[in-house]
Amino acid sequence: MKSGVADPDTGNDIGGWQGRISAIFEEEETLTIQWDSVTLKKIPPEHIAWCEEEGLSWSEMNLSLVEVEPGAVRDNPGDVTATIAKIASQSNWLHLGGAQGQRIQAIVNRAESQDLFAVLSSWHAYLEKHLVFPFAAIVQEYQRGPIRQGARITVVAISSLDEMYGTTVMVKMKQGVSELPLCDLKATDAPIKTQQLVEDYAMWFANR
């Protein structure tokens, strides 16, 4: 980008950013620039978060033909693909917006890899450390067996980590004790942090 060029959406200075032209629109006298890996690595996290919340791309931008100038090649397309994948894995929950997206992303980023079970394990460890028991909850989803959707139960402890159902918990009800997926519950009479964490986990699990 030429010196002094501004992001058309935010007004922030992007002079000196570099990339490759991926499309040219002659009638509009605009083009699409896909940022190279060097530029991608320097994009402020706040900008990436804002783009995710607004549903905009942070890896490319449409600009006027007069705002760009030739630059030296600094990487290859493979570098760009790898960098985009890495950044996306560390920011793809920010599209939820606000504090919830940030909380979910922070827990996902604790995982050793982006493999689903690794992320499940990250959630499980975080839940074990931060949930406060016992707490009251409502069964939000259909269940097989004696527990019905809408039933009010008491969650007493974490039970296990299941590859299909995620973190399961032990619950008490009138009929006795049972085990349910935490993602199917909504915490009610519980500390705010516990309610929030159960809601965040359910949101992640439903959209993983």
Give me the secondary-structure topology:
Elements: E1 19-25, E2 30-35, H1 37-42, H2 45-54, E3 60-64, H3 77-89, H4 98-108, H5 116-130, E4 135-139, E5 152-162, E6 166-173, E7 176-181, E8 185-187, H6 192-207
Antiparallel strand pairs: 1-2, 2-3, 4-5, 4-8, 5-6, 6-7
Can you put this structure into words, describing what you see?
The model has no long low-confidence stretch (mean pLDDT 95). The chain has 208 residues and is an alpha+beta fold. The radius of gyration is 23 Å and the shape is elongated. Strand 5 and strand 6 form a beta hairpin. Helices cover 34% and strands 25% of the residues. The protein has a five-stranded antiparallel β-sheet. Strands 1-2-3 form a three-stranded antiparallel β-sheet. It has helices at residues 37-42, 45-54, 77-89, 98-108, 116-130, 192-207; strands at 19-25, 30-35, 60-64, 135-139, 152-162, 166-173, 176-181, 185-187. The protein folds into two domains: 19-92, no CATH class; 116-207, SH3 type barrels, CATH 2.30.30.530. The protein starts with 18 loop residues before the first strand and ends with a helix.
